[in-house]
From TrEMBL:
Keywords: Nucleus, Transcription, Transcription regulation. GO terms for biological process: regulation of transcription by RNA polymerase II. One of its GO terms (cellular component) is mediator complex. The keyword Oxidoreductase does not apply. This is Mediator complex subunit 27. It comes from the Eukaryota. Transmembrane segments: none annotated. One of its GO terms (molecular function) is transcription coactivator activity. InterPro entries: Mediator_Med27. The keyword Repressor does not apply. Belongs to the Mediator complex subunit 27 family. It comes from Rhodocollybia butyracea. Pfam families: Med27.
């Protein structure tokens, strides 16, 4: 009769336990050296032996068999931990060792939490690909009267072919101009917004320079933080943020309800996505 899965798991854990117990005989100083140095001098055969022993333990600990067994043990202890006592270290009690680290625990796969400040679960916009960019710009300009989007070119003779990255020029009449750098890894992948720089509406500056006005430099810094929170943010989503600046100089801050901050008298240049209202709320940097 072949052993049951539980017996197999017990065996795997017992083997692991025994190999850890064996490793306890490695002299303390050698143990430290063996952990620190992977490249071992040939003159220290015992050291390399110990090192191999530790590597084997690490490998066993990471193996599917042991991880499954550890997970099963954890579940089992959770559901009924009565009558489980830990007396395996009884024989060491008199030797006054420093406390041993806890028993190995199974690795817990933590769910990747999104840190995106663009987070929105309600809309499901299909990210834009490079081939769709021109149509998107046309459609965007049809739907917006104050905002304008176009492709920026360093020179008039730069040709019509889209480059990678592409720089877009976005403007809100009398409010601001922004240069948006979008790029893609290959044609099948969506465009990601790489950087956005804001300028005053009448400033004549190159996309990679910075505004002479503190308020637009603050806006640029804020855009940088937003992109940092979601390096793959798509163009459409970023455009909703940019459009929320239409009344940048007259919008009240959602926190203090003032247009200009009491500190420094700056407009509410930051935006916070409100999932409930599906709107970007204005905030002062200092609020
Ligand atoms: Zn405020």
């Amino acid at each position: 009769m072949s052993p049951s899965p539980v017996e197999n798991q017990l065996q795997a854990l017992t083997d692991l336990y025994n190999s850890i117990q064996n490793a306890r005989h490695i002299p303390r100083d050698l143990l430290k050296t063996a952990i620190v140095s992977n490249a071992l001098p040939l003159a220290a055969p015992s050291l390399s032996l110990y090192s191999q022993q530790l590597k084997d333990i690490a490998q066993t600990l990471r193996s599917d068999t042991v991880q499954t067994a550890l997970r099963a043990a954890l579940e089992s202890a959770k559901s009924d931990s009565q009558n489980i006592t830990n007396n395996v270290r009884r024989e060491n009690r008199k030797r006054r060792r420093p406390p041993s680290p806890e028993s190995p625990q199974p690795y817990i796969v933590t769910e990747r939490q999104s840190s995106s400040l663009f987070l929105s679960s309600k809309d499901d916009i299909t990210p834009l690909k490079n081939a769709e960019l021109i149509n998107y710009i046309r459609q965007f300009n049809k739907e917006h009267s104050l905002c304008k989007l176009g492709i920026w070119q360093a020179t008039r003779s730069a040709g019509k072919a889209l480059k990678n990255p592409t720089i877009l020029r976005f403007s809100i009449k009398d409010v601001l101009t922004a240069y948006i750098t979008v790029s893609y890894t290959d044609e099948d992948h969506p465009l990601a917004v790489e950087s956005v720089t804001a300028f005053g509406p009448r400033e004549r500056k190159l996309p990679h320079s910075q505004s002479d006005y503190a308020v637009f430099r603050t806006v640029s810094q804020f855009f940088g933080r937003m992109i940092h929170s979601d390096p793959l943010v798509g163009l459409q989503r970023f455009m909703t943020l940019l459009c929320s600046y239409e009344s940048m100089f007259t919008t009240r801050c959602d926190k203090c309800q003032r247009v200009l901050s009491s500190e420094g008298h700056v407009a509410a240049v930051e935006r916070v996505w409100n999932e409930n209202t599906s709107h970007w709320e204005a905030r002062h940097v200092s609020c």
